[in-house]
Amino acid sequence: MESTRKRGLIGTPLKKKLKFVPLLLLINFHWTQSVAQLESTCFDFSKKVTEPLKQPIPFKEKMNPITAQSETDEQIRWAALRGLIDQPIESVLQKILDPKNIKGPRNKNVEVSEHKQPSYFAFRTVAMTVHPILFLTLSWKEEWAYTLLEGTEKEPQKVLVSYQKTSGTSHIDRFCGSILLKKLTHKKSDIFLYEELKATRRSSQDILNGHMGTLKMLQE
């Protein structure tokens, strides 16, 4: 997540136990962020996931993209972005199907494996290794699940991508997110990006920078 492609995760251990936290109201966009029963994982991929972690931010007239970010009392940092992409949904989805495109190349080794899951039209496991500073190596694994909400695999209308850290470094207590992609016209798509994490030395601005980098990459 550096500048427009700063999407790696760096952190130091956090041992504080996660707890229930109240709703946060983002006044700028009147968008409510709820965080309930915070755990290290966000999804149960043995069941079909059909909703993003948070509902998309409402569009504001003449604002593209529109963003939101904050931090909870439990040090969960989150950021969200919603924007329009002048690309057909098929082209955007093709890039998102490879998590390497989202992760970016800097100081990272990303290994992606494809798997079959009955509830999803695509499923990936991602092995991440990053070198944030000299002599420090962090490794963890993630799962990425792709749900077809509307349309067909050949002609998708609406797709949900859900991802989360499943194992690895204790420097990252929690890391998960949602990507909601919707077809508007043959040449325009609506995308919503949401991500939350609990890791020190990572801010909600870092997450937002990553979203901005992802949006730029998808628009190319």
Notable characteristics:
eight-stranded antiparallel sheet; 220 residues; 3 helices; two-stranded antiparallel ribbon; 10 strands; Alpha-D-Glucose-1,6-Bisphosphate, Chain A, domain 4
Q: What is the compact description of this entry?
A:
This protein has 220 residues and is mainly β. The chain has helices at 89-96, 99-103, 204-219, and strands at 24-26, 31-33, 66-71, 77-85, 108-115, 122-133, 136-151, 156-168, 174-185, 188-198. It contains 3 helices and 10 strands, in the order ββββααββββββα.
Number of domains: 1
Instruction: Give the fraction of residues assigned to helices.
Output: 10-25%
Secondary structural class: mainly beta
Please give the number of β-strands.
Answer: 10
| Biggest beta sheet attributes | 8 strands, antiparallel
Q: Can you describe what's shown?
A:
With 220 residues, the chain is mainly beta. The strands form two sheets. Strands 3-4-10-9-8-7-6-5 form an eight-stranded antiparallel β-sheet. The protein has a two-stranded antiparallel ribbon with strand order 1-2. The protein has helices at 89-96, 99-103, 204-219, and strands at residues 24-26, 31-33, 66-71, 77-85, 108-115, 122-133, 136-151, 156-168, 174-185, 188-198. It has three helices and ten strands, in the order ββββααββββββα. The protein has one domain (24-219): Alpha-D-Glucose-1,6-Bisphosphate, Chain A, domain 4 (2-Layer Sandwich), CATH 3.30.530. The longest helix is centred in the last third of the chain and has 16 residues, at 204-219. 35% of the residues are buried.
